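User: Please predict the structure of the protein below. I'd like the answer in structure-token form so I can feed it into my own downstream comparison script.

Assistant: Understood. Taking the following sequence of 407 residues as input:
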Amino acid sequence: MVGSVSFFFGGVINAAAQNIAMLIIGRILLGVGIGFGNQAVPLYLSEIAPYKIRGAVNQLFQLTTCLGILVADVVNYFTEKIHPWGWRLSLGLAVVPATLIFVGGFFLPETPNSLVEQGRLDEARKILEKVRGTPKVDAEFEDLKEASEAARAVKNPFRNLLKPRNRPQLIIGALGIPAFQQLTGQNSILFYAPVIFQSLGFGSGASLYASIITGSMLVVGALVSMSVVDRLGRRFLFIEAGIQMIGSMIIVTVTLALKFGHGETLSKGVAALLVVMICLFVVAFGWSWGPLGWLVPSELFPLEMRSAGQSVVVCVNLFFTAAIAQCFLAALCHLRYGVFILFAGLILIMSIFIILLLPETKQVPIEEISQLFEKHWYWKHIVSKDVELVQRHQKQQQQEAKTAAAV
């Protein structure tokens, strides 16, 4: 709700802008609003969803984001025809989703995890029973209370991120995935889709129309991801999409090298091929790095670090978003079609990163995901160096031995 207020005033200032300074201030306020939303929504969905469908529920965030991008593309297509104030209407319409978010916030319940952390146990159990649709939530409620007790013992969650037992979450969830999500080049393609398509020979109106097509591909990708992520798993979608995205970028690079390299203009057939390849790239991102870039980090962190970890995720993601947005046009001018092979190389690196370092988290209760790293071929050697974790396991083993002896 706080973010929606910032978003609202950002839209108002941009719509009324009389100079560049007002546009910058409005854009900053919009960015602050986006930061609040990116911090809160993935965590909320991960905590409120049953673990068996956590992936699909969490990806509602990406689906609605993609729908928002598509709506923005359609709005831009029509407002571009309104002179001279169409751009003000386009920017000012940001107040509509901001208002919906603010009003909707009054009707959202707190998550059981949050209520347990606040010591409101009765409310937490009622909410848990309500969202699960059954009063049989004893085991899950006990897990929440145990996780909350562990969270209270942590005095500095940001410092706790650096401990060996949390190293996998830090490297994969807080740093690797949010950075790699932007290094796919997807947002650069979306930011500058009109410029790219104009450079491929489309007119200004046609380039905006092509942007609507890519936005539609994002929605299709998000829908596919929602339907299969809890069956096929996160790793499968990452790896399959990596292959598809690399192939698409290679074809785009080779085609442009053969045509532009000899000073030829693009025929309609070649331009259509390039649009198809870009759409294949976008739809693959739409069912992999787009939604999973938010889902996976939100489910990796244990409760005691979840808020701190997600804040790092958002900061890293937005930092690389801004950096890539600033650098992409310069890279496109200097490298020309070579920029696409650069992205293909980066996607290869991040696909290897996923194959080697990310365990499968599908249908694993969020409170048990940390245990996956204790069995992982690489991370178990890092996690086992954590003294507190070793002591905790020893106490559990002693307690289990006493219980067995008593029986």
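That's the full token string. The two ends are 52 Å apart (CA to CA).
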